[in-house]
Write a structure and sequence with these properties.
The protein has helices spanning 23-30, 51-56, 74-84, 103-110, 135-138, 145-150, and strands spanning 10-16, 39-44, 63-67, 89-93, 116-118, 123-124, 130-132, 159-162. By secondary structure, the protein is of the alpha/beta class. The protein is 26% helix and 21% strand. A hairpin with a 5-residue loop joins strand 6 and strand 7. It is built from six helices and eight strands; from the N terminus they run βαβαβαβαβββααβ. The strands form two sheets. Strands 3-2-1-4-8-5 form a six-stranded mixed sheet. Strands 6-7 form a two-stranded antiparallel ribbon. It has one domain (5-119, 154-165): Spore Coat Polysaccharide Biosynthesis Protein SpsA, Chain A (Alpha-Beta Complex).
Length: 166
Amino acid sequence: MTRGNEMKKISVCMAVYNGEKYIREQLESILPQLKDTDEIIVSDDGSKDQTLEIIRSFHDERIHIFENELEHGFTKNFENALNHSTGEIVFICDQDDVWMKDKVRVMCEALKTWQIVVHDAVVTDAQLNVRYPSFFAQYNIRQGFLRTLLRTRYTGACMAMRREFL
């Protein structure tokens, strides 16, 4: 696969909790975009369903699972994943997303210029029927530093950044 940033190592950081319904499709959309030296860091916050079993069934050495002994909550669970990541480029990933097939390539290309990049999202229901073709349009998100600072509506799952930004 050809992508930008001189093939720097990528870490995909995913916080999970009882995500069995979507996790397989999510991983199937990410793994083909990664190279052998990239990683997916999964921080599990005490899932009681089959989430971890599904993840382990991939038998993929790029997937690293870290299980929290106590529930940390959404934010600390993501922080745990970030703290275990080692890539020069970091993607934030929710457990119920499906990535477009060229997301990694496009984001890495943008990261040649910027330290952090954010993309729009297509919002779907559980069957992947489109509810909103543009997250940005639905929530009236526009470009501009001041507007972004005062009214942040970006979601982590639509972000990638260089490690030095963290």
